[in-house]
Structures are given as C-alpha cells and as structure tokens.
Amino acid sequence: EKAPYPHFMLKEIHEQPRALRDTLRGRIEGGRVVFPELEEAAFHLRECRRLFLTACGTAFHAGLVGKYLLEKLARLPVEADIASEFRYRDLTLGPGDVVLVISQSGETADTLAALRLAKEKGAKVLAITNVVGSSVAREADWVLYTWAGPEIAVASTKAYTAQVLLVTLLALYLAELRGTLPSEEIIPLVEEVKFLPERVAQVLAWEEEIARLAQALKEQEHFFFIGRGLDWAVAEEGALKLKEISYIHAEAYPAGELKHGTLALITEGVPVVALATQSHLFEKMLSNIKEVKARGAWVLALTADDQAVAGETDVCFHLPPGNPLLMPAVAVVPLQLLAYYVAVARGCDVDQPRNLAKSVTVE
Ligand code: F6R
C-alpha cells in the first residue's frame, strides 16, 4: 500500500532512513563492523589479491561506489563490470578469486549468469541482495542482505542506498580483516556511518524546494550530471533515475572528461547537475563548474561544507557535512527527488515507466 504517497517511488524514497537503519542493525559493535554471515568467507576475503564486481543498472552504480571504497579502505584492486559484459568476456578468473555480485531482486538474468560463470570457473561468490531466497541468494557462496524491505517502484531508490551502505560496511570490514587501515581510522568512520539514516532524513526535508525546481525544469530535453571520484558514481545514478522515469535525455560524465568532447554539448541554458562533495577534488570540480557556466549552462550544485561553489552556481544545496567517503548515500537522495518531481511534472507514469520491468529475468 502506497498511501499516503501518490506513488510507490515516493514512498520508497521516504522509507530510506528506516531502510538504512535496518541495513545497519546488528552490524556495528564497539566501533567495528561485524558480519557473522561471512565467518566462512573470511579466509578467502583475507587472502584474495583482487575482487571482481558485477551487477546491472542501479545495482552496478552502487558497485561503482563499492569499487572506490574497497580500493581506498581495503586496498583491494577491484574490477567492476556490467553483468552483460562480464559474462561474455574471456575473464582471467579462477580459484582464489572472489566475485561480488549485487542485485536487489536476486533474479536478474545477466547477473545470475555472471554468478554461475564465476562459480564454474572456480571463483567464490559473495552476493549482496535484498530478496531472501532469491536465485542469487541461493546460488552464491555467501550472502549479505540489504534488508531494505520490498521495493515495488521500477526505479530503484531505497535498495540503492541500502546497497551503498552495505558496500561501505564491507569495505570497512575488509579494511580490518586485511589490516589495511589502523583501528584509529576505522573506528571514527564506523561511528559516523551510524548517522547516515539521520542525514538522509535531513535531506528529505528539501522535498518542496526540489519539487518547485522540477516545475521550472520540466520542459528541458537534455541534462548533464558531472562529478569526480565517488561523485561521478552518484552522477551516474542521478542520470539513470532521471532518464528512466522522466524520459529526458540525461548523461553522466566524470567532470574531467568534459573537455574531451562533451563540452561541445553545453550551450545556453542546458541544465548541469554538478556534484562537489569530495574535498580533495573540490578545486578541480570548481574549475569544471566555471567551464560549463562560461558556456551558459544552468548549474545545480550539490556540495558539502564548501561555500565557494555557491557563488558559481544557479542553485546550490549544502549536504550535511561529514566524511567525503560517506557522501554517496546522502547525495543521491536529492537526485532521486529531482527525477521523481520532474517526471510527475511531465505527467509520466512514475511507478511503471514505459518499456521497463522491475525484474529483468530474460537477457
Ligand atoms: C533502475 C533499476 C535497474 C536495476 C537493474 C538490476 O532504477 O532499478 O537498473 O537496478 O535492473 O536489478 P537488480 O538489482 O534486481 O538485479
């Protein structure tokens, strides 16, 4: 039942603080991440030299966040591949390798085929899924559940933020297991993770303002989303949300790539959503923002505590401050709301976008 919300998507966007609390439940003890379900996996996860990661769509975008965090915190090289590519590549995959598979439904045909291929080649499979008893859950060697609750809307929202949270916990868990980060650095991060549900709730309060913005943007036919590092991963998800439910052409780019072609598309009035939450990349993002502004773009920025960006943009949202590594789960929320309200303003069927199905069980 979606009442009092007009759509399941909006209901699920609002369920995110609760969903994230459920993802966290029982997984943090005394400043450490605990995963009793990985007891048998620990040996493999400690010894493996690299990790393969595969998924489709939104789940893949959560994987991109995971790739970045696993490399940063657990010093684990991660090869991330869309499942329909993974399964047809001649992978150098074998015993000793671990493949991380991410799937909300646990039934996506390509993801399941990638899982089966990995097992055939002798690799171990760790799955992140939302559905207990799903094919992915049954066939993987080890499973971490997101516990986001049933997701009905075709466009994934709470499953994505729960996946992002879970890969963050996994990276912190592996950082301890593999001894790549001293506990003085792990503990404050783990403690800060507990505030994510609250930060998401704070950002949800921007809903009315975003709905008004959406009204003003509803006639646009092209959108660009730019960011660097983790912000680029979130930009990919923001663009996907917008195109799948509003049918507006949206593209995400690593901001440093603009010069290599995309800048040609930035003309007077083109909306650019710029994510600038990563402090070590902030100056670089600021110059990219100036570049698109100089071509007449209309810029909506999402930043954390950096004030400088506000002066350079048309609209600027300040996210609750925090460690940049923990920004994705919060930064995506205004982008979900923007996609939702633009789609509603355009009269689209938000919960059942054309040509799409919730669970893609055929190739
Ligand atoms: C987009 C969306 C899809 C799914 C993709 C994978 O909002 O929901 O891109 O993320 O079809 O689905 P799962 O996670 O069920 O494997």
From TrEMBL:
SIS domain sequence ranges: 41-180, 213-353
GO molecular function, one term: glutamine-fructose-6-phosphate transaminase (isomerizing) activity
Top-level EC class: transferase
Subcellular location: Cytoplasm
GO cellular component: cytosol
Cytoplasm among keywords: yes
Gene Ontology annotations of biological process type: carbohydrate metabolic process; fructose 6-phosphate metabolic process; protein N-linked glycosylation; UDP-N-acetylglucosamine metabolic process
EC number, as in UniProt: 2.6.1.16
Top-rank taxon, per record: Bacteria
Main location, first listed in the record: cytoplasm
Catalytic reaction annotation: D-fructose 6-phosphate + L-glutamine = D-glucosamine 6-phosphate + L-glutamate
Active site, renumbered: K358
Alphabetical keyword list: Aminotransferase, Cytoplasm, Glutamine amidotransferase, Repeat, Transferase
Its biological purpose: Catalyzes the first step in hexosamine metabolism, converting fructose-6P into glucosamine-6P using glutamine as a nitrogen source.
Subunit structure of this chain's protein: Homodimer.
Protein name: Glutamine--fructose-6-phosphate aminotransferase [isomerizing]
